[in-house]
Known about the structure:
Helix content of chain A: 40-55%
Number of strands of chain A: 9
CATH topology of the largest domain in chain B: Rossmann fold
Number of domains of chain A: 1
Number of strands of chain B: 5
Order of helices and strands of chain B: HHHHEHEHEHEHEH
Number of helices of chain B: 9
CATH class of the largest domain in chain B: Alpha Beta
CATH architecture of chain A: Alpha-Beta Barrel
Strand order of the largest sheet of chain A: 1-4-5-6-7-8-9
Order of helices and strands of chain A: HHHHEHEEHEHHHEHEEHEHHEH
Strand content of chain A: 5-15%
Structural class of chain A: alpha/beta
Distance between the termini of chain B: 39 Å
Oligomer: heterodimer
Structural class of chain B: alpha/beta
Shape of chain A: globular
Helix content of chain B: 40-55%
Radius of gyration of chain B: 18 Å
Amino acid sequence: MKQTAKERLFAAAKSQPFDRPPCICPGGMMNMMFQEIMEQSGCPWPAAHVEPEKMAGLAKALYQAGGFENYGLPYCMTVEAEALGAKVNMGDLLCEPHVVESPLADCGEWQSLPQLSLESGRIPCVLQALRLLSAGNEEVPLIGNLTGPVSLAGTLVDMDKLLKAMRKMPETAHAFLDFVAEQLIRYGNAMLEAGADAICISEPSGTGELLGPRYFRDYTIPYLNRVMDALSAPVKIIHICGRMQNVYELLEQLHCDIFSFDAVVPIKEIRPYLKGKAAMGNISTLTLNETTAERVQAQARHALRSGVDVLAPACGLPTTTPLSIVQAMVSAAREEEACQS
Amino acid sequence: MRTKEELLAELARCVVEMEDDSVADVAREYAEAGHDPKEGILNGLIIGMNQAADLYDQEEYYIPELLICSAAMYNGLDVLKPLLPQEKQENEQKIVIGVVQGDTHDIGKNLVKIMLEAAGFTMIDLGRDVPVERFVDAVRAENPQVVALSTLMSTSMQNMGRVVQLLEEAGLRQQVKIIIGGGPVSTAFARKIGADGYSVNATDAVHLVRELLGA
Lengths: 341, 215
Protein backbone atom coordinates (compact mmCIF):
# COMPACT_ATOMS: atom_id res chain seq x y z
CA MET A 1 0.00 0.00 0.00
CA LYS A 2 1.65 3.19 -1.17
CA GLN A 3 -0.28 6.30 -0.25
CA THR A 4 -0.05 9.85 -1.47
CA ALA A 5 0.86 12.46 1.12
CA LYS A 6 -2.78 13.54 1.17
CA GLU A 7 -4.14 10.02 1.67
CA ARG A 8 -1.60 9.43 4.39
CA LEU A 9 -2.49 12.54 6.38
CA PHE A 10 -6.22 11.82 6.02
CA ALA A 11 -5.66 8.23 7.20
CA ALA A 12 -3.58 9.36 10.17
CA ALA A 13 -6.22 11.92 11.09
CA LYS A 14 -9.03 9.38 11.00
CA SER A 15 -7.17 6.54 12.77
CA GLN A 16 -7.13 4.49 9.58
CA PRO A 17 -4.17 2.41 8.40
CA PHE A 18 -1.35 4.35 6.77
CA ASP A 19 1.73 3.09 4.99
CA ARG A 20 3.96 5.19 7.22
CA PRO A 21 3.56 8.29 9.39
CA PRO A 22 3.25 11.64 7.62
CA CYS A 23 5.74 14.40 8.34
CA ILE A 24 4.15 17.83 8.07
CA CYS A 25 4.44 21.40 9.26
CA PRO A 26 1.10 23.18 9.05
CA GLY A 27 2.26 26.74 8.39
CA GLY A 28 0.56 29.75 9.98
CA MET A 29 1.91 30.14 13.48
CA MET A 30 3.73 26.84 12.92
CA ASN A 31 6.12 28.49 10.51
CA MET A 32 7.49 26.08 7.92
CA MET A 33 9.60 28.47 5.86
CA PHE A 34 13.25 29.44 6.09
CA GLN A 35 15.82 31.55 4.34
CA GLU A 36 17.39 28.81 2.24
CA ILE A 37 14.17 27.81 0.51
CA MET A 38 13.06 31.42 0.10
CA GLU A 39 16.27 32.22 -1.74
CA GLN A 40 16.25 29.04 -3.82
CA SER A 41 12.68 29.55 -4.93
CA GLY A 42 12.85 33.25 -5.72
CA CYS A 43 9.76 33.64 -3.54
CA PRO A 44 11.16 35.40 -0.48
CA TRP A 45 9.38 37.02 2.43
CA PRO A 46 7.90 39.58 2.67
CA ALA A 47 6.75 39.35 -0.98
CA ALA A 48 5.44 35.83 -0.34
CA HIS A 49 3.06 37.24 2.27
CA VAL A 50 1.34 39.54 -0.21
CA GLU A 51 1.62 38.06 -3.72
CA PRO A 52 -0.45 34.93 -4.32
CA GLU A 53 1.92 33.52 -6.97
CA LYS A 54 4.90 33.89 -4.64
CA MET A 55 2.96 32.57 -1.68
CA ALA A 56 1.99 29.48 -3.64
CA GLY A 57 5.41 29.27 -5.28
CA LEU A 58 7.19 29.15 -1.93
CA ALA A 59 4.95 26.33 -0.69
CA LYS A 60 5.55 24.33 -3.86
CA ALA A 61 9.29 24.90 -3.71
CA LEU A 62 9.57 23.49 -0.19
CA TYR A 63 7.52 20.43 -1.07
CA GLN A 64 9.48 19.77 -4.24
CA ALA A 65 12.76 20.12 -2.37
CA GLY A 66 11.79 17.19 -0.15
CA GLY A 67 10.53 19.38 2.66
CA PHE A 68 7.38 18.79 4.64
CA GLU A 69 4.65 16.64 3.12
CA ASN A 70 2.05 19.36 2.87
CA TYR A 71 1.33 22.86 1.71
CA GLY A 72 0.34 25.29 4.43
CA LEU A 73 -0.76 28.92 4.20
CA PRO A 74 -0.27 31.67 5.18
CA TYR A 75 3.21 32.17 6.65
CA CYS A 76 2.22 34.22 9.66
CA MET A 77 -0.61 34.75 12.10
CA THR A 78 -1.50 38.33 11.30
CA VAL A 79 -3.86 38.02 8.32
CA GLU A 80 -7.06 37.94 10.38
CA ALA A 81 -5.86 40.65 12.78
CA GLU A 82 -4.99 42.91 9.86
CA ALA A 83 -8.39 42.34 8.24
CA LEU A 84 -9.97 43.36 11.55
CA GLY A 85 -8.01 46.60 11.77
CA ALA A 86 -4.66 45.79 13.38
CA LYS A 87 -1.56 47.47 11.99
CA VAL A 88 0.99 44.94 10.81
CA ASN A 89 4.71 45.24 10.21
CA MET A 90 5.39 42.89 7.29
CA GLY A 91 8.80 41.84 8.61
CA ASP A 92 11.64 40.90 6.29
CA LEU A 93 13.38 37.84 4.90
CA LEU A 94 14.02 36.45 8.39
CA CYS A 95 11.28 37.96 10.53
CA GLU A 96 7.64 37.08 10.05
CA PRO A 97 4.93 39.74 10.01
CA HIS A 98 3.75 40.87 13.41
CA VAL A 99 1.06 43.14 14.77
CA VAL A 100 2.44 46.49 15.89
CA GLU A 101 -0.77 48.28 16.75
CA SER A 102 -4.00 46.86 18.06
CA PRO A 103 -7.27 48.44 16.90
CA LEU A 104 -8.85 48.32 20.37
CA ALA A 105 -7.80 50.15 23.53
CA ASP A 106 -10.10 47.99 25.61
CA CYS A 107 -12.11 44.76 25.32
CA GLY A 108 -15.34 46.68 25.81
CA GLU A 109 -14.80 48.40 22.45
CA TRP A 110 -15.05 45.19 20.44
CA GLN A 111 -18.29 46.28 18.83
CA SER A 112 -16.39 48.96 16.95
CA LEU A 113 -14.51 46.28 14.98
CA PRO A 114 -15.53 45.76 11.37
CA GLN A 115 -16.96 42.48 10.20
CA LEU A 116 -14.15 40.54 8.59
CA SER A 117 -14.45 41.00 4.85
CA LEU A 118 -13.06 38.37 2.53
CA GLU A 119 -11.93 41.29 0.39
CA SER A 120 -9.87 42.97 3.07
CA GLY A 121 -6.13 42.99 3.65
CA ARG A 122 -4.27 39.87 2.55
CA ILE A 123 -7.26 37.53 2.73
CA PRO A 124 -7.77 37.61 -1.06
CA CYS A 125 -4.08 36.80 -1.49
CA VAL A 126 -4.28 33.77 0.82
CA LEU A 127 -7.46 32.53 -0.86
CA GLN A 128 -5.96 32.97 -4.32
CA ALA A 129 -2.78 31.13 -3.30
CA LEU A 130 -4.94 28.29 -1.93
CA ARG A 131 -6.74 28.08 -5.27
CA LEU A 132 -3.41 27.99 -7.11
CA LEU A 133 -2.16 25.17 -4.88
CA SER A 134 -5.36 23.13 -4.96
CA ALA A 135 -5.87 23.22 -8.75
CA GLY A 136 -5.25 19.74 -10.10
CA ASN A 137 -3.54 18.73 -6.87
CA GLU A 138 -4.39 15.17 -5.86
CA GLU A 139 -1.18 14.55 -4.01
CA VAL A 140 -0.29 17.18 -1.46
CA PRO A 141 -2.55 18.00 1.50
CA LEU A 142 -3.31 21.70 1.60
CA ILE A 143 -3.63 23.21 5.06
CA GLY A 144 -5.35 26.52 5.74
CA ASN A 145 -4.24 28.10 9.01
CA LEU A 146 -6.29 30.14 11.43
CA THR A 147 -5.12 32.02 14.50
CA GLY A 148 -6.85 30.73 17.62
CA PRO A 149 -9.71 32.85 18.97
CA VAL A 150 -7.95 33.78 22.23
CA SER A 151 -4.69 34.55 20.42
CA LEU A 152 -6.45 36.63 17.76
CA ALA A 153 -8.50 38.53 20.35
CA GLY A 154 -5.22 39.12 22.21
CA THR A 155 -3.76 40.92 19.21
CA LEU A 156 -6.88 43.01 18.60
CA VAL A 157 -6.53 44.36 22.12
CA ASP A 158 -3.47 44.10 24.37
CA MET A 159 -3.29 40.53 25.65
CA ASP A 160 -3.04 41.66 29.25
CA LYS A 161 -6.34 43.51 28.91
CA LEU A 162 -8.00 40.41 27.51
CA LEU A 163 -6.62 38.26 30.32
CA LYS A 164 -7.79 40.71 32.96
CA ALA A 165 -11.23 40.87 31.33
CA MET A 166 -11.49 37.09 31.51
CA ARG A 167 -11.51 37.44 35.26
CA LYS A 168 -13.06 40.84 35.85
CA MET A 169 -15.49 41.23 32.95
CA PRO A 170 -16.35 37.72 31.82
CA GLU A 171 -19.45 38.81 29.90
CA THR A 172 -17.46 41.28 27.83
CA ALA A 173 -14.68 38.76 27.24
CA HIS A 174 -17.18 36.15 26.08
CA ALA A 175 -19.00 38.57 23.78
CA PHE A 176 -15.68 39.64 22.25
CA LEU A 177 -14.49 36.06 21.74
CA ASP A 178 -17.85 35.14 20.31
CA PHE A 179 -17.44 37.87 17.70
CA VAL A 180 -13.86 36.80 16.96
CA ALA A 181 -14.94 33.17 16.51
CA GLU A 182 -17.62 34.24 14.02
CA GLN A 183 -15.03 36.07 11.94
CA LEU A 184 -12.72 33.06 11.96
CA ILE A 185 -15.56 30.84 10.80
CA ARG A 186 -16.20 33.08 7.80
CA TYR A 187 -12.52 33.08 6.84
CA GLY A 188 -12.15 29.35 7.48
CA ASN A 189 -15.11 28.54 5.26
CA ALA A 190 -13.61 30.67 2.50
CA MET A 191 -10.34 28.73 2.84
CA LEU A 192 -12.23 25.46 2.45
CA GLU A 193 -14.06 26.79 -0.60
CA ALA A 194 -10.71 27.81 -2.05
CA GLY A 195 -9.54 24.22 -1.77
CA ALA A 196 -8.00 23.70 1.67
CA ASP A 197 -8.10 20.04 2.73
CA ALA A 198 -7.37 20.72 6.35
CA ILE A 199 -7.79 23.56 8.82
CA CYS A 200 -5.19 24.06 11.52
CA ILE A 201 -5.93 26.42 14.38
CA SER A 202 -2.99 27.44 16.57
CA GLU A 203 -3.34 28.94 20.03
CA PRO A 204 0.00 30.37 21.11
CA SER A 205 -1.67 32.57 23.73
CA GLY A 206 -4.77 30.67 24.85
CA THR A 207 -2.67 28.07 26.63
CA GLY A 208 -3.06 26.14 29.86
CA GLU A 209 0.29 27.52 30.94
CA LEU A 210 -0.81 31.15 30.66
CA LEU A 211 -4.51 30.88 31.47
CA GLY A 212 -4.59 28.02 33.95
CA PRO A 213 -7.17 25.23 33.78
CA ARG A 214 -10.20 27.33 34.62
CA TYR A 215 -9.90 29.93 31.87
CA PHE A 216 -8.58 27.34 29.44
CA ARG A 217 -11.82 25.44 30.00
CA ASP A 218 -14.03 28.55 29.91
CA TYR A 219 -12.41 30.46 27.05
CA THR A 220 -9.90 28.49 24.98
CA ILE A 221 -11.82 25.26 24.49
CA PRO A 222 -15.34 26.57 23.77
CA TYR A 223 -14.25 29.04 21.10
CA LEU A 224 -11.85 26.63 19.41
CA ASN A 225 -14.73 24.16 19.29
CA ARG A 226 -17.14 26.83 18.03
CA VAL A 227 -14.88 27.45 15.05
CA MET A 228 -14.05 23.82 14.36
CA ASP A 229 -17.70 22.70 14.64
CA ALA A 230 -18.75 25.29 12.09
CA LEU A 231 -16.12 24.26 9.54
CA SER A 232 -16.67 21.13 7.48
CA ALA A 233 -12.95 20.58 7.06
CA PRO A 234 -11.95 17.02 6.12
CA VAL A 235 -9.07 17.24 8.60
CA LYS A 236 -9.04 19.43 11.71
CA ILE A 237 -5.81 20.17 13.53
CA ILE A 238 -5.41 22.10 16.78
CA HIS A 239 -2.02 23.23 18.09
CA ILE A 240 -1.61 24.62 21.58
CA CYS A 241 1.70 25.96 22.83
CA GLY A 242 3.36 25.59 26.18
CA ARG A 243 3.20 23.21 29.09
CA MET A 244 -0.06 21.27 29.40
CA GLN A 245 0.08 19.16 32.56
CA ASN A 246 -2.58 21.26 34.25
CA VAL A 247 -5.05 20.83 31.36
CA TYR A 248 -4.45 17.23 30.23
CA GLU A 249 -7.83 16.20 31.62
CA LEU A 250 -9.57 18.84 29.50
CA LEU A 251 -8.06 17.86 26.15
CA GLU A 252 -10.73 15.25 25.44
CA GLN A 253 -13.18 18.15 25.09
CA LEU A 254 -11.39 19.55 22.04
CA HIS A 255 -13.07 18.90 18.69
CA CYS A 256 -10.26 17.98 16.35
CA ASP A 257 -8.76 15.00 14.51
CA ILE A 258 -5.15 15.84 15.21
CA PHE A 259 -3.74 17.48 18.31
CA SER A 260 -0.32 19.12 18.13
CA PHE A 261 1.74 20.13 21.15
CA ASP A 262 4.97 21.75 22.21
CA ALA A 263 8.41 20.23 22.72
CA VAL A 264 8.17 20.71 26.50
CA VAL A 265 5.28 18.24 26.65
CA PRO A 266 6.40 14.61 27.10
CA ILE A 267 4.71 12.50 24.42
CA LYS A 268 4.19 9.46 26.61
CA GLU A 269 2.63 11.60 29.28
CA ILE A 270 0.08 13.36 27.04
CA ARG A 271 -0.76 10.39 24.78
CA PRO A 272 -3.34 8.74 27.11
CA TYR A 273 -5.33 11.99 27.15
CA LEU A 274 -5.64 12.08 23.37
CA LYS A 275 -7.91 9.07 22.89
CA GLY A 276 -9.63 9.21 19.51
CA LYS A 277 -7.22 11.86 18.28
CA ALA A 278 -3.97 11.60 16.37
CA ALA A 279 -0.97 13.01 18.25
CA MET A 280 1.22 15.39 16.28
CA GLY A 281 4.60 16.75 17.16
CA ASN A 282 6.89 17.52 18.70
CA ILE A 283 10.43 17.91 17.39
CA SER A 284 12.08 20.88 19.06
CA THR A 285 12.56 23.66 16.56
CA LEU A 286 15.74 24.63 18.36
CA THR A 287 17.07 21.19 17.58
CA LEU A 288 16.10 21.62 13.94
CA ASN A 289 17.95 24.88 13.82
CA GLU A 290 21.25 23.61 15.11
CA THR A 291 21.55 19.87 15.11
CA THR A 292 22.92 17.28 12.70
CA ALA A 293 20.87 15.13 10.34
CA GLU A 294 21.62 12.05 12.45
CA ARG A 295 20.39 13.67 15.63
CA VAL A 296 17.19 15.00 14.16
CA GLN A 297 16.45 11.56 12.73
CA ALA A 298 17.08 9.94 16.08
CA GLN A 299 14.73 12.44 17.70
CA ALA A 300 12.11 11.84 15.03
CA ARG A 301 12.28 8.07 15.53
CA HIS A 302 12.07 8.55 19.27
CA ALA A 303 8.96 10.74 18.88
CA LEU A 304 7.30 8.11 16.69
CA ARG A 305 8.17 5.30 19.15
CA SER A 306 6.79 7.40 21.98
CA GLY A 307 3.37 7.66 20.41
CA VAL A 308 3.31 10.44 17.85
CA ASP A 309 1.17 9.63 14.79
CA VAL A 310 2.05 12.67 12.71
CA LEU A 311 5.64 13.81 12.82
CA ALA A 312 5.97 17.60 12.96
CA PRO A 313 8.01 20.41 14.48
CA ALA A 314 6.80 21.43 17.93
CA CYS A 315 6.57 25.13 17.08
CA GLY A 316 7.33 27.50 14.22
CA LEU A 317 10.71 27.00 12.57
CA PRO A 318 13.38 29.65 12.95
CA THR A 319 14.05 31.05 9.49
CA THR A 320 17.71 30.05 9.77
CA THR A 321 16.77 26.34 9.77
CA PRO A 322 18.79 24.43 7.13
CA LEU A 323 16.90 22.61 4.35
CA SER A 324 19.07 19.54 4.87
CA ILE A 325 17.79 19.17 8.43
CA VAL A 326 14.16 19.41 7.33
CA GLN A 327 14.87 16.82 4.64
CA ALA A 328 16.47 14.57 7.25
CA MET A 329 13.41 14.86 9.47
CA VAL A 330 11.09 13.97 6.59
CA SER A 331 13.25 11.03 5.59
CA ALA A 332 13.00 9.67 9.13
CA ALA A 333 9.24 9.35 8.56
CA ARG A 334 9.79 7.86 5.10
CA GLU A 335 11.98 5.15 6.54
CA GLU A 336 9.36 4.00 9.01
CA GLU A 337 7.90 0.52 8.64
CA ALA A 338 4.33 0.29 7.46
CA CYS A 339 1.97 0.95 10.31
CA GLN A 340 -0.48 -1.91 10.77
CA SER A 341 -3.01 -0.17 12.93
CA MET B 1 -9.30 54.33 62.74
CA ARG B 2 -7.16 51.49 61.57
CA THR B 3 -3.66 50.99 62.94
CA LYS B 4 -0.57 51.14 60.76
CA GLU B 5 -0.21 47.37 60.93
CA GLU B 6 -3.82 46.89 59.90
CA LEU B 7 -3.36 49.23 56.96
CA LEU B 8 -0.16 47.50 55.84
CA ALA B 9 -1.94 44.16 55.99
CA GLU B 10 -4.84 45.64 54.07
CA LEU B 11 -2.51 46.99 51.35
CA ALA B 12 -1.00 43.54 50.96
CA ARG B 13 -4.43 41.93 50.93
CA CYS B 14 -5.73 44.29 48.25
CA VAL B 15 -2.83 43.29 46.01
CA VAL B 16 -2.97 39.54 46.54
CA GLU B 17 -6.78 39.46 46.38
CA MET B 18 -6.87 41.52 43.19
CA GLU B 19 -8.74 44.51 44.60
CA ASP B 20 -7.25 46.90 42.10
CA ASP B 21 -10.18 49.32 42.52
CA SER B 22 -10.01 49.76 46.29
CA VAL B 23 -6.26 49.66 46.90
CA ALA B 24 -5.75 53.36 46.13
CA ASP B 25 -8.19 54.38 48.87
CA VAL B 26 -6.32 52.23 51.38
CA ALA B 27 -3.02 53.74 50.28
CA ARG B 28 -4.45 57.23 50.72
CA GLU B 29 -5.78 56.38 54.17
CA TYR B 30 -2.32 55.06 55.05
CA ALA B 31 -0.58 58.16 53.73
CA GLU B 32 -3.00 60.62 55.32
CA ALA B 33 -2.41 59.00 58.71
CA GLY B 34 1.20 60.10 58.25
CA HIS B 35 2.78 56.66 57.95
CA ASP B 36 6.06 56.10 56.11
CA PRO B 37 5.37 55.68 52.37
CA LYS B 38 8.45 53.51 51.89
CA GLU B 39 7.18 51.05 54.47
CA GLY B 40 3.77 51.11 52.83
CA ILE B 41 5.38 50.01 49.60
CA LEU B 42 7.81 47.44 50.99
CA ASN B 43 5.76 46.03 53.86
CA GLY B 44 2.37 46.39 52.21
CA LEU B 45 2.15 46.38 48.42
CA ILE B 46 5.31 44.37 47.74
CA ILE B 47 4.39 41.79 50.37
CA GLY B 48 1.08 41.33 48.58
CA MET B 49 2.78 40.99 45.20
CA ASN B 50 5.20 38.43 46.58
CA GLN B 51 2.27 36.47 48.00
CA ALA B 52 0.69 36.58 44.56
CA ALA B 53 3.95 35.25 43.11
CA ASP B 54 3.90 32.40 45.63
CA LEU B 55 0.34 31.55 44.59
CA TYR B 56 1.51 31.58 40.97
CA ASP B 57 4.36 29.21 41.82
CA GLN B 58 1.82 26.96 43.55
CA GLU B 59 -0.43 27.10 40.44
CA GLU B 60 -3.26 28.68 42.38
CA TYR B 61 -2.86 31.80 40.29
CA TYR B 62 -2.14 32.10 36.58
CA ILE B 63 -1.31 35.04 34.38
CA PRO B 64 -4.75 36.72 34.50
CA GLU B 65 -4.60 36.81 38.31
CA LEU B 66 -0.98 38.01 38.37
CA LEU B 67 -1.84 40.82 35.97
CA ILE B 68 -4.68 42.05 38.16
CA CYS B 69 -2.51 41.79 41.28
CA SER B 70 0.15 43.85 39.58
CA ALA B 71 -2.44 46.42 38.47
CA ALA B 72 -3.42 46.69 42.13
CA MET B 73 0.22 47.06 43.14
CA TYR B 74 0.75 49.86 40.62
CA ASN B 75 -2.45 51.64 41.70
CA GLY B 76 -1.08 51.64 45.23
CA LEU B 77 2.36 52.75 44.05
CA ASP B 78 0.79 55.66 42.18
CA VAL B 79 -0.36 57.02 45.55
CA LEU B 80 2.70 56.22 47.67
CA LYS B 81 5.63 56.71 45.30
CA PRO B 82 5.25 60.50 44.86
CA LEU B 83 5.49 60.79 48.66
CA LEU B 84 8.94 59.22 48.80
CA PRO B 85 11.80 61.64 49.53
CA GLN B 86 13.79 62.35 46.35
CA GLU B 87 17.02 60.70 47.36
CA LYS B 88 19.27 58.80 45.07
CA GLN B 89 19.07 55.18 46.00
CA GLU B 90 22.33 53.67 47.13
CA ASN B 91 23.59 50.56 45.37
CA GLU B 92 20.82 50.94 42.86
CA GLN B 93 20.73 47.93 40.58
CA LYS B 94 19.40 48.59 37.12
CA ILE B 95 17.97 46.19 34.59
CA VAL B 96 17.28 47.01 30.97
CA ILE B 97 14.41 44.92 29.63
CA GLY B 98 12.63 44.58 26.30
CA VAL B 99 11.06 42.34 23.66
CA VAL B 100 13.50 41.99 20.76
CA GLN B 101 12.69 43.19 17.28
CA GLY B 102 10.25 41.06 15.34
CA ASP B 103 7.82 40.48 18.15
CA THR B 104 5.22 42.50 20.00
CA HIS B 105 4.08 39.92 22.56
CA ASP B 106 4.98 41.56 25.83
CA ILE B 107 3.01 39.92 28.63
CA GLY B 108 5.97 37.81 29.66
CA LYS B 109 8.28 40.80 29.58
CA ASN B 110 5.84 42.87 31.60
CA LEU B 111 5.50 40.21 34.27
CA VAL B 112 9.26 39.80 34.55
CA LYS B 113 9.52 43.55 34.90
CA ILE B 114 6.87 43.61 37.63
CA MET B 115 8.50 40.84 39.64
CA LEU B 116 11.97 42.36 39.35
CA GLU B 117 10.57 45.74 40.30
CA ALA B 118 8.90 44.14 43.33
CA ALA B 119 12.27 42.61 44.17
CA GLY B 120 13.79 46.08 44.36
CA PHE B 121 15.49 46.48 41.00
CA THR B 122 15.19 49.65 38.94
CA MET B 123 13.70 48.67 35.61
CA ILE B 124 14.37 50.42 32.32
CA ASP B 125 11.71 49.16 29.97
CA LEU B 126 12.50 49.57 26.26
CA GLY B 127 9.10 48.15 25.28
CA ARG B 128 8.45 45.69 22.49
CA ASP B 129 9.68 45.13 18.95
CA VAL B 130 12.92 46.83 20.07
CA PRO B 131 15.71 47.15 17.46
CA VAL B 132 18.87 45.38 18.65
CA GLU B 133 20.93 48.57 18.54
CA ARG B 134 18.65 50.17 21.11
CA PHE B 135 19.71 47.64 23.73
CA VAL B 136 23.32 48.62 23.14
CA ASP B 137 22.46 52.32 23.38
CA ALA B 138 20.58 51.68 26.63
CA VAL B 139 23.50 49.78 28.16
CA ARG B 140 25.82 52.63 27.24
CA ALA B 141 23.48 55.30 28.60
CA GLU B 142 22.14 53.60 31.71
CA ASN B 143 24.99 51.40 32.79
CA PRO B 144 22.74 48.57 34.01
CA GLN B 145 23.85 45.35 35.72
CA VAL B 146 21.51 43.18 33.70
CA VAL B 147 19.92 43.10 30.25
CA ALA B 148 16.77 40.99 29.99
CA LEU B 149 15.55 39.95 26.53
CA SER B 150 12.24 38.36 25.65
CA THR B 151 10.51 36.92 22.61
CA LEU B 152 7.69 34.50 21.93
CA MET B 153 8.45 34.08 18.24
CA SER B 154 10.89 31.59 16.80
CA THR B 155 11.47 33.92 13.86
CA SER B 156 12.77 36.69 16.08
CA MET B 157 14.83 34.77 18.63
CA GLN B 158 17.95 35.15 16.50
CA ASN B 159 17.83 38.83 17.38
CA MET B 160 18.71 37.88 20.96
CA GLY B 161 22.00 36.52 19.70
CA ARG B 162 22.55 39.72 17.78
CA VAL B 163 22.13 41.79 20.94
CA VAL B 164 24.82 39.71 22.65
CA GLN B 165 27.05 40.07 19.61
CA LEU B 166 26.59 43.83 19.33
CA LEU B 167 27.35 44.26 23.04
CA GLU B 168 30.54 42.29 22.48
CA GLU B 169 31.49 44.48 19.55
CA ALA B 170 30.77 47.62 21.53
CA GLY B 171 33.04 46.36 24.31
CA LEU B 172 30.13 46.42 26.76
CA ARG B 173 29.51 42.70 27.14
CA GLN B 174 31.67 42.20 30.23
CA GLN B 175 29.84 44.80 32.31
CA VAL B 176 26.37 43.24 32.06
CA LYS B 177 24.68 39.93 32.65
CA ILE B 178 22.30 38.98 29.86
CA ILE B 179 19.24 36.89 30.57
CA ILE B 180 16.60 35.63 28.15
CA GLY B 181 13.10 34.24 28.33
CA GLY B 182 10.10 33.34 26.18
CA GLY B 183 8.34 30.39 24.59
CA PRO B 184 10.82 29.27 21.93
CA VAL B 185 14.05 29.76 23.91
CA SER B 186 15.76 27.65 26.54
CA THR B 187 18.86 27.26 28.65
CA ALA B 188 20.55 25.56 25.72
CA PHE B 189 19.71 28.49 23.46
CA ALA B 190 21.00 30.93 26.07
CA ARG B 191 24.28 29.05 26.15
CA LYS B 192 24.45 28.94 22.37
CA ILE B 193 24.11 32.69 21.91
CA GLY B 194 26.40 33.48 24.83
CA ALA B 195 23.78 34.82 27.24
CA ASP B 196 24.27 34.30 30.97
CA GLY B 197 21.00 32.64 31.77
CA TYR B 198 17.44 31.66 30.93
CA SER B 199 14.41 31.79 33.15
CA VAL B 200 11.22 29.88 32.58
CA ASN B 201 8.91 32.47 34.16
CA ALA B 202 8.73 35.78 35.99
CA THR B 203 9.32 34.49 39.50
CA ASP B 204 12.22 32.38 38.30
CA ALA B 205 13.72 35.49 36.68
CA VAL B 206 14.11 37.08 40.12
CA HIS B 207 16.03 34.04 41.40
CA LEU B 208 18.16 34.01 38.27
CA VAL B 209 19.10 37.70 38.52
CA ARG B 210 19.94 37.38 42.21
CA GLU B 211 22.07 34.36 41.48
CA LEU B 212 23.92 36.05 38.63
CA LEU B 213 24.56 39.20 40.66
CA GLY B 214 25.49 37.21 43.73
CA ALA B 215 22.94 39.25 45.65
